[in-house]
Amino acid sequence: MAYVTPSRERRVLKAGHSSIAVTLPKPWAEAMNLRPGDIVVFDQNDDGTLYLKPAPTPGEPVAGSPYLVQAHNFDTPGVLTRLVVGAYRVGHDAVEIRTAMPLSAERIEELQAAARSLLGVSVVAQEPNRILLQNFIDPSKYELPQLVQRMKMILIAFLDESEEMLQRRSHSRRLSSLQEETVKVQALLVRQLFLASRDWSLARRIGSPDPRQLLEWRVVVQTLEELGELLGRVALEVDRAPAGLGGGEGGLAEILGELRSNLKRVVEVLMRPSLSGACEAYGDSVRLRSSVATLSGPGSKDNAKPRTAVFSSALDRACTSLTTLATVAIDRAVAIGNETVLVPAA
Question: Which entry of 2, 170, 323, 346 is 20 to 30 Å from 164 by CA?
Answer without folding.
Answer: 323
